Every structure is written in structure tokens, then in C-alpha cells.
Recover the amino acids of this structure.
């Protein structure tokens, strides 16, 4: 009787070990398949979410390029003062603003936003460019006046 009980316990233990090993290898296989699908290595198309993700450094570089354009425009206005921005300068200002806001939103969405002094909001960047900001406000006000003037 003791021998039969020992054999049954050994068989149940062996069965339990086999089930645990089968579960472990199956889960590991599933993880590998999911990882390959996520990076597009399974021969299928790369998911859109993976295509659109950029590293935080790439986003910061793009934002830095847009910020540098504003700094250069501010420096140009410091060297040669004017009373109005050219059309190209207004377009460059608006493109820089859009790029900076987009990059900031992307960094926040990725959870990579570090805040001051590393990451600046658009308002903080705008405060550091007083001449460009003032001339852009003059441009916007002139556009508003044109729209509000009654046609005769």
C-alpha cells in the first residue's frame, strides 16, 4: 500500500512539473510573438503606432530647430530694427510656433516632459523673444483691423 501511494504521489508531482514547464514555455513563446508583431518583424506591416513613435531626443531636436529659427529672427531684429515683419518672417514664426507646440504635446504624451529648465512651454519661449513677439502682435492687429473695416 505504501509503494502504491508513493508511485501515485511521484506521478502527480511529475505531472505537475510537466504542466508548469508547458505553461512557462507557452507564455515565453507568446511574448516572443507579441514582441515581433510590435516591431513588424513577423513579415506583416508595421503598426501605425510604432511608425509614429519617435524618441524623446528626436522630438527635442525638432523643437530646438524651430526655437533656433525664432532666436535667429530675434537676433536679426536686434541688428536691424524694423516696424513690421515680412510675410516670410510671419510664416516662419507661425511654423515655429506650431512645431514647438506639437513637440511639447508629443513629449507630454510620451511622458518625457521634464519641465524647466530643460523643456519650455510656448509662452516661456515667446517671452524670451520680445521683439519678434511685439512685431507679430502688430501684424495680427493689422489683420484684425483689415477684417473689421467695412467694405465701401
Amino acid at each position: 500500500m505504501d509503494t502504491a501511494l508513493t508511485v501515485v504521489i511521484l506521478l502527480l508531482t511529475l505531472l505537475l512539473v510537466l504542466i508548469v514547464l508547458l505553461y512557462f514555455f507557452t507564455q515565453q513563446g507568446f511574448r516572443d510573438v507579441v514582441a515581433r508583431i510590435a516591431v513588424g518583424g513577423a513579415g506583416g506591416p508595421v503598426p501605425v503606432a510604432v511608425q509614429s513613435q519617435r524618441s524623446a531626443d528626436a522630438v527635442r531636436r525638432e523643437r530646438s530647430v524651430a526655437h533656433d529659427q525664432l532666436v535667429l529672427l530675434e537676433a536679426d531684429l536686434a541688428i536691424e530694427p524694423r516696424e513690421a515683419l515680412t510675410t516670410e518672417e510671419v510664416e516662419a514664426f507661425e511654423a515655429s510656433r506650431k512645431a514647438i507646440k506639437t513637440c511639447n504635446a508629443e513629449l507630454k504624451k510620451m511622458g518625457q516632459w521634464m519641465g524647466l529648465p530643460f523643456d519650455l512651454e510656448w509662452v516661456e519661449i515667446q517671452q524670451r523673444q520680445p521683439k519678434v513677439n511685439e512685431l507679430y502682435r502688430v501684424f495680427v492687429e493689422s489683420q484684425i483691423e483689415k477684417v473689421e473695416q467695412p467694405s465701401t
Q: What stands out?
A: Confidence is low (pLDDT under 50) at residues 42-52. DSSP finds six helices and no strands in the chain.
